[in-house]
Amino acid sequence: CTGTGTVGDPYVIADHTFSIITGYALVIVNSRANFRIENCTFYNLDAQTSLYLFNTTTGIIDDNLFDYLYNPVWLLNCSQLTMSNNDIIDSGYSIFATASKDIVIDSNFVNDSVYEAITLENCLENCVINNNDITYANDYSILIDTTHFATITNNLVERGIEGIYCDTSNH
Q1: Which of 10, 105, 117, 119 is the most exposed place for a label (fewest CB within 10 A)?
Q2: Distance CA 56, CA 79 (A)
């Protein structure tokens, strides 16, 4: 990890391969420091979640590969995060954000999710799902549940069971 966690010099986790068997591969908890996770590979983990962010802000997750994982990315009570240009292949729940706000999920490729490809659950405001390519989700490609003020634009959804499902959400 390099950097100091400031806007001009964020912590950077780059070019790592994670293949842990149990627990979490990478966890960031209670952080307000600026960070980037880029060009990493997460694969073949029996772990519950490979990338787990809890009560964390000001981060960028960009250009990573998540391959053959149960829950590649879980964002819980997070804000000001951008997840872009990632490839997520053969997963359970691909991108799961709950109790979060100001989340941008943009230009990701998600292929073969057993459950939902992208989920926003109990998210508060300013969540954006844009320009993602979702191929074959066995459940909902995009699930919005009890989420308010979300924007969903220009996503390609193909060969899934359900496209976009919105429940108890508005705006």
Answers
A1: 10
A2: 7
Q: Please give the share of the chain, as a percent, with pLDDT higher than 70.
A: 97
Give the Cα separation of 86 and 63 in Å (integer). Answer: 5
CA distance 148 to 4: 34
Type of residue at 30: N
Token output for 12 = 């950077």
Rounded distance, CA 109 to CA 2, Å? 27
Alpha-carbon span 16 to 51, nearest angstrom: 13
pLDDT confidence of residue 34: 98
- Candidates 115, 161, 112, 168; CA nearest to 144 is 168
pLDDT tens for each residue of 26-45:
999 999 999 999 999 998 76
Count CB-CB contacts under 10 A for residue 70. Answer: 15
Q: How far apart are CA 29 and CA 56, in angstroms?
A: 6
pTM over 0.85: yes
113-137 pLDDT, tens digit each: 988 999 999 998 899 999 999 998 8
Among the listed residues 147, 103, 113, the one whose alpha carbon sits nearest the alpha carbon of residue 133 = 113
Side-chain-side CA neighbours of residue 169 (13 Å): 23
The number of angstroms, rounded, from the C-alpha of 4 to the middle of its chain's C-alpha atoms is 24
